[in-house]
Write a structure and sequence with these properties.
By secondary structure, the chain is of the alpha+beta class. The protein is built from 15 helices and 23 strands. Strands 8-9-10-1-11-19-12 form a seven-stranded mixed sheet. The chain is globular. It starts with a helix and ends with a strand. About 45% of the residues are buried. The N terminus is likely disordered.
C-alpha cells in the first residue's frame, strides 16, 4: 500500500493540472467563437439535422481503402455489407437474405435481397457483389485490407440474385469477415466511372448519401429517399471536424454539436453537471496492453514477462487515472468479443513476487528497460504510461519512458529492432478472434509486435479458421488463448470503454463495440 501512495500524488496533480488547463480554455479558440457562424444544419438548425462532433476527418469514402475507425464510421452510413450484426452481436442478413454452405464447408451460397438500388441508380445484384469483391482482391487496387477476403478462391454468379463464394478450405470466421466495412458492396457503375477516385464519389446502398465534403471542416450526408429499408428519421447528418478534445466538449455544451465521441475521462464530471447533456459509457472491443519484445533482452525470458505482469496494479490505474472508464483485463482479448475466454490464469498485483521472478531470471538488482508509449492515441495514454512506469519501478523495472507521436511509435513497433516494452491498443473490426490471432499472435502477423513465434499457437490459429462448427471452434479458440496466456507476450491491462456524450434531446444512436457510432436512425426530439 505504501508503494502505491508514492506515485499517486504526482499523478493526481498532473491530472488536476491538465483538467484545470482544459477548463480555462488554455488560450484555444472557444467553441463560442464559431457560434455566430453555426452551420445551418447544426444543432440550432432545426430538428431535421443532427451534428456529430468528431476528432479527425475521414481519409476516404472508399470502403476497400479504409484502415481506421473514424473513416469507417463515415463510410458505413453510405454503404452496406452482405451480412451484419444484431445488437447481441449475432450475424444476421443485410444485402444477403439467406445463405448456406456446401457439405465440405468450402462453398457458401448467398441469396441476395431483390429490388435494391445503389445511390447512383445502378442495380444491386450478384454481378455487383462479384465486381466489388474482385476489385478488393485485385493487387492493383492497393487495398490495405485485401486479406479480409483473400480466402476466396472462386466466385460464381448462379443467377441475378444468387452468388457462390468458394474458399480453399473451410473457413469458420467467413461471415464475420464479410460483415466488416472493408467488405461493403460498391456500385459497379461508380467503380467503372471513377476507378481509384471512387473515394470521392461513393455510391453504396445505404440510408445516407454523401452530399458535401469540406476536408478538415465537415462532411454532410443527406437521407437516401430511395433507400430499400426503414428510412432514417433525420434528413441531414453533419460530421463536424473538431480535433481538440476540449473544444469538442465545449461545442457540445454550447449546443454547437449534438453528439461527440472520445470524451476525455477527466471531463466526464464536467459534462454530467450540465443538465442538457448525457454521458454514455459503452463496452468496446479494444484491449490496451503492454507488449514485450520476445526477441530482445530481458523479455526473451518468460520469468521477466511474468514479473512485469505481477508488477502492475491494474485496479489502481483504472480507478485513479481512468476514473473507472475501463474494465480490468482478464485475458488478451476483450471479453465482449464472442469466444474470448474469461477463465484464463491471471496475474494479480504482487511486487514481491515480481522481484523474486526478476532475481530468478538473473536480475536481483533490477533491470533497465526502454518503454515506448503513444501520446494522444488512446484515452489518457500518456498518464497511464507514467503510472505504469512508477508502479513497475517498485518491482525493479527501471523504465526509460518515451511517449512518442503515433507515426514514430508505430514505425518503431514494426521495425522492432530496439523495442523492449511498449503500450498499445488493439480493437477488432470483425468482432471475431480470428482477427487478433492472425495479426497479433501468429508468426509473422502484421501487428505481432512482440514477435511471438510458437508452432503450437500457429497450428491452433490455422485450426480455428478451418473449424466451421461453432462449438468445436470455441474449444479451439479457448485452447489458443490459453497457450497465448502461457507464452505471455502481453501484459493485458484493461478493456477500453467508449465514452460518448450527447444532448439529451438526441435519441436513436447505437454505439457498437467495434467503435462504430451508428447514427443511421438518430433523431432530435
Amino acid at each position: 500500500m505504501h508503494r502505491k501512495i508514492k506515485w499517486l500524488p504526482l499523478l493526481l496533480a498532473t491530472i488536476l493540472a491538465l483538467t484545470a488547463g482544459c477548463s480555462s480554455g488554455g488560450g484555444q479558440q472557444p467553441a463560442g467563437g464559431t457560434q455566430g457562424q453555426q452551420d445551418s444544419a447544426g444543432a440550432g438548425g432545426g430538428n431535421d439535422a443532427v451534428v456529430y462532433g468528431v476528432g479527425v476527418d475521414a481519409t476516404t469514402m472508399d470502403p476497400q481503402m479504409v484502415d481506421n475507425v473514424p473513416t469507417a464510421n463515415a463510410v458505413m452510413h453510405v454503404h452496406e455489407t452482405l451480412v451484419t450484426w444484431d445488437k447481441d452481436m449475432n450475424i444476421v442478413g443485410k444485402l444477403a437474405e439467406t445463405w448456406e454452405t456446401s457439405s465440405d464447408g468450402k462453398t457458401w451460397t448467398f441469396h441476395l435481397r431483390q429490388g435494391v438500388k445503389f445511390q447512383d441508380g445502378a442495380d444491386f445484384n450478384a454481378e455487383a457483389v462479384k465486381k466489388s469483391f474482385e476489385r478488393i482482391l485485385d493487387p492493383a487496387t492497393g487495398s490495405p485490407r485485401r486479406s479480409i477476403l483473400s480466402m476466396i478462391t472462386a466466385m460464381k454468379v448462379v443467377d441475378p440474385y444468387t452468388i457462390e463464394l468458394t474458399t480453399n478450405e473451410p473457413f469458420g470466421p467467413f461471415l464475420s469477415q464479410l460483415a466488416t466495412y472493408n467488405a461493403a458492396i460498391l456500385s459497379p457503375k461508380a467503380i467503372d466511372q471513377y476507378g481509384k477516385d471512387y473515394g470521392r464519389h461513393p455510391a453504396g446502398t445505404g440510408p445516407y448519401i454523401l452530399k458535401e465534403w469540406q476536408p478538415g471542416e465537415k462532411m454532410v450526408f443527406e437521407r437516401n429517399e430511395n433507400y430499400w429499408g426503414e428510412k432514417p428519421k433525420t434528413k441531414t447528418l453533419v460530421f463536424k471536424i473538431i480535433p481538440e478534445n476540449t473544444t469538442r466538449v465545449m461545442a457540445l455544451q454550447t449546443g454547437e454539436v449534438d453528439i461527440i465521441s472520445n470524451v476525455p475521462p477527466f471531463q466526464i464530471e464536467q459534462l454530467k453537471a450540465n443538465k442538457d447533456v448525457e454521458v454514455v459509457l459503452a463496452e468496446g472491443f479494444r484491449t490496451i496492453y503492454l507488449g514485450m519484445n520476445m526477441k530482445n533482452k530481458p523479455f526473451n525470458d518468460v520469468r521477466v514477462r511474468q514479473a512485469l505482469n505481477y508488477a502492475i496494479d491494474r485496479d489502481a490505474i483504472i480507478q485513479t487515472v481512468l476514473g473507472g472508464t475501463a474494465t480490468k483485463a482478464v485475458g488478451p482479448e476483450a471479453t465482449s468479443i464472442p469466444g474470448a475466454a474469461s477463465d484464463l490464469p491471471t496475474y494479480e498485483y504482487n511486487p514481491d513476487k515480481a522481484k523474486q521472478l526478476l532475481a530468478e531470471a538473473g536480475y536481483p538488482n533490477g533491470v533497465e528497460i526502454k518503454f515506448y508509449a503513444p501520446f494522444g492515441r488512446y484515452n489518457m495514454d500518456k498518464q497511464v504510461a507514467e503510472a505504469i512506469q512508477a508502479q513497475i519501478a517498485q518491482a525493479g523495472f527501471k523504465a526509460d519512458l518515451q511517449t512518442l507521436d503515433w507515426s514514430i511509435f508505430s514505425n518503431a513497433l514494426r521495425e522492432g529492432k530496439d523495442t523492449q516494452l511498449f503500450m498499445v491498443g488493439k480493437g477488432s473490426p470483425s468482432g471475431d478472434l480470428d482477427f487478433t490471432s492472425q495479426i497479433c499472435w501468429k508468426t509473422g502477423g502484421s501487428l505481432n509486435y512482440s514477435f511471438l513465434s510458437d508452432p503450437t499457437i500457429d497450428k491452433l490459429v490455422d485450426e480455428q479458421r478451418r473449424t466451421v462448427d461453432p462449438e468445436k471452434r470455441k474449444q479451439v479458440l479457448h485452447e489458443m488463448q490459453l497457450k497465448v496466456q502461457e507464452a505471455l507476450p502481453w501484459a493485458s491491462l484493461y478493456y477500453e470503454k467508449q465514452i460518448v456524450a450527447k444532448r439529451k434531446n438526441i435519441a436513436g444512436e447505437v454505439i457498437w463495440p467495434n467503435e462504430f457510432v451508428d447514427l443511421r436512425y438518430v433523431e432530435k426530439k
